Amino acid sequence: MSDSCGSHGCATPAASQSPRYRRVLWAALIINLAMFGVELAGGLSSGSVSLLADAVDFFGDAANYGISLLVLGMALTWRARAALFKGLSMGAFGIFVLGRAAWSAASGTVPEPMTMGAIGALALLANVSVAAMLYAWREGDANMRSVWLCSRNDAIGNVAVMAAALGVFGTGSGWPDLAVASVMGVLALTAARSVIQQARAELRPLPAHA
């Protein structure tokens, strides 16, 4: 078997042209746009940084799914370029969340935990559904991998938001919310690094003998 097959180069084109994969991306796009609106409203009404962070993440993911649909039938180079852009976007999201958490810590805001918990549970259901639909394509090229990582990280983040809501309820402090928001920011930076590394590798020219 050739090196390109060993690195999923042979399986990716068929998967990327799959009508089922395209339908999954459309479903993910719609779900993420809907949850962006729900979490934005909930984060503003409850004063929760972790909900606002998750809302921004939902919006970024919706944009990522749209980009993935745009480049789905294109050559690997274009899919890798799209993945590189998405990796940079994920990194920017991580930096934004960490900055917002620092600002909220300085202002001493305490969020409303019941709203946090209820919306966190709804978001978890949405993201688990998307992650389950995308599971079969988690080992594709950098573009497909970035889509899977976004959904996986979101599901983890939703569990953390629910835990933060419980912590805020039990302590009467905003620190559990800020701690979760910070972890979400770091998780986004870690995923961004993984996607950027794979995208850069796919953008390197093949050796002359390959």
TrEMBL record:
TM regions (residue ranges): 24-46, 58-76, 83-103, 115-135, 155-172, 178-196
Any coiled-coil regions, as ranges: none
Top-rank lineage group of the source organism: Bacteria
An MF annotation (GO) of this entry: zinc ion transmembrane transporter activity
Membrane disposition: Multi-pass membrane protein
A single cellular component GO annotation: plasma membrane
Residue span, Cation efflux protein transmembrane domain: 25-202
Intracellular or extracellular location(s): Membrane
Classification via SUPFAM superfamilies: Cation efflux protein transmembrane domain-like
InterPro entries per UniProt: Cation_efflux_TM, Cation_efflux_TMD_sf, CDF/SLC30A
A family per Pfam: Cation_efflux
Keywords attached to this entry: Ion transport, Membrane, Transmembrane, Transmembrane helix, Transport, Zinc, Zinc transport
UniProt xrefs under PANTHER family: CATION EFFLUX PROTEIN/ ZINC TRANSPORTER, RE54080P-RELATED
Protein name: Cation transporter
